[in-house]
Amino acid sequence: MALPEGPEGFEVEYVDADGVRRRVGLAECWAEPFGRLPPVRTVRAYPGQKSVTRQYWAATTRGPLLVESHLERHHAMLLDFDPQVTGLAAQPFRLFWPTRRVGMMSVFATLHHEFVRAATNDGLAAARSRGKTGGRPPRLTTEQIEQAQQLYDSGTPVPKIARTFKAAPATIYRYITPKAAN
């Protein structure tokens, strides 16, 4: 899945300060105070639930922050101690693409895949610029290929040529030029 380029491909859904659910383009909501907005979805707690849903009082926002797990609470606590953090919010928005709705885990997986692919392509280009071609080295040298061709042209069977160079017959066939049919 290709990601849209720039903010124009994304839409954001959030609940504004008046409690009205809105869905707008990403570029239209830069000024929204997401740190002070309510969560975009309700978090339900029930008996026997495996995760822990509770409120954590955050000093950064001077108010409660809804967390759904111990890990999320620990992250909130660490962020709360960082003086560079100016706001904390629990699920203040959802991201959408024009074609279909995509979950956040899919977004992160896709972004990670794109970053890895770009880094791999950059590395391969840098290696090529240094003369490295990558891949498995050739089984036969240029000199051996010429010798194999001479043996083949003189009528030596390919399996015997293969044994001479300690290679598979398929490898020999890959390197030699067959005789023209009469």
Automatic annotation (TrEMBL):
<protein>
    <submittedName>
        <fullName>Resolvase helix-turn-helix domain protein</fullName>
    </submittedName>
</protein>
<feature type="domain" description="Resolvase HTH">
    <location>
        <begin position="135"/>
        <end position="176"/>
    </location>
</feature>
<dbReference type="InterPro" id="IPR006120">
    <property type="entry name" value="Resolvase_HTH_dom"/>
</dbReference>
<dbReference type="GO" id="GO:0003677">
    <property type="term" value="F:DNA binding"/>
</dbReference>
<dbReference type="InterPro" id="IPR009057">
    <property type="entry name" value="Homeodomain-like_sf"/>
</dbReference>
<dbReference type="Pfam" id="PF02796">
    <property type="entry name" value="HTH_7"/>
</dbReference>
<dbReference type="GO" id="GO:0000150">
    <property type="term" value="F:DNA strand exchange activity"/>
</dbReference>
